[in-house]
Every structure is written in C-alpha cells, then in structure tokens.
Amino acid sequence: MTSLDDRWHAWLLDNLARGCSHESIVIAMLDAGFEPAFAQQSVATYARFAGVPAYQYDACPVAAGNRIYAHDREVEVIARCAKPQVVVFDKVLTDEECATLIARCRARMNRSTIIDPNSGAEQVIAERTSSGAAFARCEDELIERIERRLAALMAWPLENGEGMQVLRYGVGAQYTPHFDYFPPQDPGSAAHLATGGQRVATMVLYLNDVEAGGATVFPDAGIEVAPRRGRAVYFRYANAAGQLDPLSLHAGAPVTAGEKWIMTKWVRERRY
Ligand SMILES: O=C(O)CCC(=O)C(=O)O
Ligand SMILES: [Fe+2]
Predict the structure, then answer these.
(1) Fe2OG dioxygenase domain: which residues (predicted)?
(2) What is the longest distance spanned by two Cα atoms in the chain?
(3) Are 26 and 245 in contact (CB under 8 A)?
(4) Is residue 264 in contact with ligand 1, taking CB distance under 6 Å?
(5) 102 and 200, same structural domain?
(6) What ligand 1 atom has the least distance to the C-alpha of 216?
C-alpha cells in the first residue's frame, strides 16, 4: 500500500500523539502491508507536523581512518555513511576462518526465527527464510578471537555482545526490511530489554562470495552492500540518549544464484 486513507491518517496522528516510537509505528504499517519507504516517509512527515524530535546522530564509536587495528588483525575500511551510521569493512575474517565457520555450522542449521512482537517468543516467519546456528560467546579459542576482534572494531565491550549467529540463505531466501532493535512499544520486547537493554549496533560478516543477489540493503538510505567473503557491514541505530534511528531499516535481498552465508553480531547497551 502506498496511500493513507482517513482512518490511517487518524491512526498515525493518534499514535504519534500517544508518544509511540517512530519505529513501532513503521513496523505496524509494514505489518499492515505498506511499502517500507512509504511507511517511513509518512511517519517522518507526520512526526514533523506533530513536533516529535528527529533522531540525533551522536559520535559513532568506530575509530576513524582507512585501517583499524582490531585485536589481532588490521582491518580495512571501504566505505562509511554518517546518516544512517554504516561502516563497510574488508579483511575482517580470513578465508580460512570463513571456511571453518561455515563447515562447523553446516551440519547444525535450523530455520531462522524472529521475536514475536506480543509474546517475545521466537517464531518462524515467511519474511525470514534463512536457516541458522548460534555460537555461545567465546565458546572456544577461534570464536573468542573473533569476538575480541569485533569488540575492538565496534569499539564496544565484548560483554555487551550477544553470541554470534551464522545464517545460510539458499536461492530465493531473504530477510525482508526490518529493524534489529527491539521495538520499545511491543509487549514482547520487555523481556529482551530487561537483560542488557536495547540493541545498539549490528555487524553482519560475509562468509562467502555470493554468485548473484544477497546484498544487505538499507532501502530508505539508498545503501546497498554487496556480500563478499571476509567483508562486513556495521550499522548503529541507538544513540546515547536511547533514540532509535528509523533510517537503519535494512534487509537481506533475495539470493538469486548460489548461496549466502553470514555471521551476525548484535551488541547491547549494557552487559548481556
Ligand atoms: O542478510 C543480510 O544481509 C542481513 C541480515 C540481517 O539483517 C539480520 O540478520 O538481522
Ligand atoms: Fe537485521
């Protein structure tokens, strides 16, 4: 849907007046079948009208420069975006590390889940058609080394990170546009927010070269990151004041040939 009838017009004004977050309003509109860009734009327009403060970009913790020495390895910076805060890295993982991570997970993949907005329980949905496997934080020497590297790169305490997740997308599999943070208005978010607080940033690491498709896309920012073995995309969506960045809406585009393997690191406000 790409237009608002009178009922939706009233609904938007009402929700903004009640103090609902932009993110929760956008998510409700996506659930109702609105196009992501349209939902985002409508909420931003109505919010300006209603005098709701826009997301304030504060300093990104990632170090400046073309190269960042991260724990045990020099990582290259390929691209940065300020709004939303996105950094693309190369040489985060070695080819051998990527191969090992894939080999270790291949045998124990399960269909990916999302968090039910109401109950907070994990559920399988059509919008997320990958399969995955999780590592416990620092479960062995390799995982710990990578965790330390990512903590240095993200400049965020290792203790605030969730365990890493490996995902595999086959041809046609995708993750439709979504936010990684827990929508504050959803009853199901409360239990997640109670331990470690909000998610503040994500690192998606590409473990293989994808024959075609499978980009990480930020539809409202017009950013597309091509998957490439050893590379990673970092994005930050919560500022120190606890606001959440609506421009961080992102998706894993459908794989059109080959397969796509990624590993994801989500980091929280506090120890997790
Ligand atoms: O597959 C991708 O490129 C993005 C994955 C993602 O957004 C997620 O796992 O939260
Ligand atoms: Fe995501």
Answers:
(1) 160-269
(2) 58
(3) no
(4) yes
(5) yes
(6) 3
- Ligand 1 pocket mutation pick from 169, 179, 216 by most atoms within 8 angstroms of CB: 216
Report the residue among 169, 176, 204 best suited for mutation to probe ligand 1: largest number of ligand atoms under 8 A from its CB.
Answer: 204
Report pLDDT for 229.
98
Atom of ligand 1 nearest to the CA of 214: 3
Q: How far apart are the CA of 263 and the centre of ligand 2, in A?
A: 11
- Nearest-CA residue for atom 1 of ligand 1: 252
242: containing domain: 67-268
With a 6 A CB cut-off, is 180 part of the ligand 1 pocket? yes
3-state helix, strand, coil split of the chain in percent (to 5) is 30, 30, 45
Reported confidence tier of residue 127, pLDDT bands at 50, 70, 90: low
State how far the Cα of 177 lies from the Cα of 174, in Å rounded to an integer: 10
- Give the separation between CA 18 and CA 46, rounded to whole angstroms: 13
Tens of pLDDT, residue by residue over 162-209, are 999 999 999 999 999 999 999 877 788 888 899 999 999 999 999 999
Q: Which of 47-61, 96-110, 112-126, 214-228 has the highest mean pLDDT?
A: 214-228
Range name among 51-65, 94-108, 180-194, 238-252 with the lowest pLDDT average: 180-194
Position 252 in a domain: yes
The whole-angstrom separation of Cα 38 and Cα 40 is 5
- Give the 3-state secondary structure of residue 178: strand
Residues 96 and 10 in one domain: no
Do 115 and 224 have their domain in common?
A: yes
Percentage of the chain modeled with pLDDT above 90: 67
CATH of the domain at 237: 2.60.120.620
